[in-house]
Amino acid sequence: MGIEEKLPSGVLLTTVEGVAGYFRQASFWPATFGLACCAIEMMTTGGPKYDLARFGMEVFRASPRQADLMIVAGRVSQKMAPVLRQIYDQMAEPKWVLAMGVCASSGGMFNNYAIVQGVDHVVPVDIYLPGCPPRPEMLMDAILKLHDQVQTRKLGSNRLEQIAEREEAALSALPTSEMKGLLR
Ligand code: SF4
Questions:
Q1: Which of 80, 84, 103 maximizes ligand 1 atoms within 8 Å of its Cβ, making it the mutation to test the pocket?
Q2: In 120-177, alpha helices (H)
Q3: For residues 127-145, average pLDDT
Q4: Cross-strand bridge partners of residue 127
Q5: Contacts of 131 (CB under 8 A, 6+ apart)
Q6: pTM surpassing 0.90?
Q7: Is the pLDDT of residue 32 over 90?
């Protein structure tokens, strides 16, 4: 991906990971991007009452090239999906995606041909936030959990090992079709 991937493993890399993770998690710039009712809660989160500025991310960027966090706030229509993907592709690496609300995460109650049944069909999602709509406190909680992910993100050869481990865990996880929920 870049010079990061060429870094050798060892004590030095562990230290670089810690420093890079600290600065990255403390300086998220979200893309200005709202799709439906969840976006109202996202906008509220940026207001003075909830004060996202505390976490260094009050600046929602109008250009995807200046953003490293995509908050997918609302249902994704089939027509919007390629646009969303294009915005994601234009964001600079490293970048993260937060699926906000049940519609973005799984299609929610819109189980029909017009709505993408989970934005993970279009872009890789780092964290899912349940709720309809999730309250601003829930969004901030998800952002803080994402901070933890970013802080512990590996670099260089350690990153390749981490990706392999996560892929292994995903392959051995119980398929959602076999999960038992309230409706089964
Ligand atoms: S999860 Fe609820 S609030 Fe959010 S977009 Fe869907 S219907 Fe709207």
A1: 103
A2: 136-151, 156-172
A3: 94
A4: 98
A5: 101, 102, 138
A6: no
A7: no
- The Cα-based distances of 16 to 7, 19, 108, 153 in angstroms read 10, 5, 40, 11
C-alpha 75 to ligand 1 mean position (Å): 7
Question: Which run of H or E residues covers position 70?
Answer: strand 69-73
The protein residue whose alpha carbon is closest to atom 3 in ligand 1 is 133
Please state the separation of Cα 62 from the chain's center in Å.
18
- Distance of CA 128 from the midpoint of ligand 1 (Å): 14
pLDDT at 6 over 70: no
**What's the order of all strands across the beta sheet hosting 69-73?**
69-73, 96-100, 127-129
Output the residue whose Cα is nearest ligand 1's atom 5.
74
Q: Are 103 and 75 in contact (CB under 8 A)?
A: yes
Residue to substitute in 35, 43, 71, 75 for testing ligand 1 pocket (most ligand atoms within 8 angstroms of CB): 75
110 has which bridge partners?
none
